[in-house]
Amino acid sequence: MKIVAIIGSLFICVFTSWSNQLLAKEPVFRHGVASGDPLPDGVIIWTRVNTDQEEVAVEWEVAKDRDFINMLYFGKLTTNAEQDYTLKVDVGGLEPNRTYFYRFRALGEQSMVGRTRTAPQGDVERIRLAVVSCSNYEAGYFNAYARIADRKGLNAVIHLGDYIYEYGQGVYGDESTGRMHQPPHEVVTLEDYRTRYGQYRLDRAAQMVHQAHPFIMIWDDHEIANNAHSSGAQNHQTEKEGSYQKRKAAARQAYLEWMPVRENERKEIYRNLKFGNLAELVMLDERLAGRSEPVKGTKDEQYLAEERSMLGAEQFQWMTSCLKDCGSIWKIIGNQVLFSDLNLQEVRPNRPLNMDAWDGYPAEKRRFMDFLQQTSMQNVIFVTGDTHASWAFEVPADMKAYRKDGSETVAVEFGTTSISSANWDERLPVDSVKTIEKDFARSSLNPHLKYINLRDHGYLLLTLRPNVARAEWWYVDTVKQPSRRERLGRSYVVKKGTHKLRAMLRGGSISRPRLKKE
After folding, report:
1. pLDDT above 80: residue 11
2. CA-to-CA distance for 270 and 247, rounded, in angstroms?
3. DSSP at 118
4. Which of 78, 134, 244, 506 has a 20 to 30 Å separation from 480 between CA atoms?
């Protein structure tokens, strides 16, 4: 009996050890799935395999239903360490404006099931886009991502940049949340950037929103370094961090590995996507493609120089050609930094203009304005990130000629607030921030500014119809802890053929149900 007992005990120990190893093993598809850049007949699907094998084969499947009974396409590809074990498939042969489901298999495991949607084609009655920016892991929870994941009827999520932040631990964020950056130091090398993306893609809310909707993405500066431009960055010191061009190449490579972005022959990330006859989205690269180094202020002798550029000559020409050839009703410009004039005199007397925005590049901004005016371009909407604030502007061709009836305007601009990055009230008392908002919105300074919110986190919901576009700012109640509550803060509409904004009624607070886990 003792021998049996000893054997039984050994079996239990071995079984327990084996079970614990299985439980401790990280899932093969621990970074989730994602899709992006939807076309009428195709979409990018993405995943990453968690392995240390030299090379691994990955199977992918696309179906019309969540249970994969009606299977459409499948295939097998390999991935390896050279691409950080990431995998992108450009799936073609799909039908316009249809929902599809996809999944991956590798090393005996299956990924979660992703849901995506192709772009519509022909006559389109409605498009709905969530617009987001500035998701800083250390600043708080990505509650807005989770609320977007819950939304039905979205065509896509537009991410305007600052998907990650490059800073080391405790430099820019809120340590009280316990969400500390990995690696702990500032990211500089390719391995650093890969590790940081990996951390962000382990966030549950980030996984939920990528699992639920296709993304259309562009980088801003923090995917590289703060206030990045083509030849340097404010947060890059060559003597400490080496070659900026090497760092830029590493940041670009990691971004393209980890994001569901369709790569093209031009090796540039600026691109356009069509949504039938209703809208065309023009995504700009205002950081790496051709941006000149910012000047320190309006008194700098180079401030007005004609050769200074936000986009670079090649991208500027591409953009104007896209807009000229656009046959869609609405022209949506995916824009990283504010395009509209913004007078900061009352708030920042020593720095009345933001040199990192289009105000810092007046010659090219004037050329852009002239193009819109000379071509009589209609129904132009800028959607903008970067500022951690909400904005609604009517964009005049010339501020001196601006009229409140909107007759001298060439576009409207909607700025989305941050997912989690610090708003003004996280460094100033709320009452002070409300006073600053009033100062910004003074008719004597910024008469074209119709809405401003410097206090709340969330996202912009843009709904386009043939005769009207509607912008809604949705806000979460906190980023300091997980929360399911959101509220409609403000809504504006602009009618086809005008660039005049009209305010709608405010909304209330609601709690959305959790997204069902796969």
Report:
1. no
2. 20
3. P
4. 506
Q: What's the CA gap between 361 and 355, in Å, rounded?
A: 8
Average pLDDT, the chain: 92
The whole-angstrom separation of Cα 275 and Cα 278 is 6
The answer to whether residues 30 and 202 touch, using CB atoms and an 8 Å cutoff, is: yes
Closest CA to 295 of 309, 282, 281, 283: 309
Beta carbons of 343 and 445 less than 8 angstroms apart: yes
Buried b (16+ CB within 10 A) or exposed e, 71-88: ebeeeeeebeeeebbbbb
Select from 270, 343, 266, 259 the least CA-distant residue to 310.
Answer: 270
Question: Per-residue pLDDT averaged across 17-42, rounded?
Answer: 79
What DSSP string describes 179-241?
Answer: ---SSSSPP-SHHHHHHHHHHHTTSHHHHHHHHHS-EEE---STTTSTTB-SS-BTT--HHHH
Is the pLDDT assigned to residue 503 strictly greater than 50?
yes
Q: What are phi and psi of 381, to 5 degrees?
A: -125, 120
Task: Locate 273 and state its tokens.
Answer: 């996507």
Q: pLDDT tens digits for 164-196?
A: 999 999 999 999 999 999 999 999 999 999 999
Q: What is the pLDDT of residue 506?
A: 60
Instruction: Centre a 10 Å sphere on the Cβ of residue 26 and count the other Cβ atoms it contains.
Output: 9
pLDDT of residue 208: 98
State the DSSP H helix or E strand holding residue 335, giving kind and residue range, or none if neither. Answer: strand 330-335
Rg of the chain (C-alpha set): 24
What length is written for the chain?
518
Closest CA to 478 of 423, 401, 409: 423
Half-sphere exposure of 59 (CA within 13 A, CB side): 9
Predicted pLDDT of residue 401: 84
User: What six digits make up the tokens of 65?
Assistant: 């239903």
Q: What is the pTM of this model?
A: 0.92
The owner of tokens 């009280």 is 176
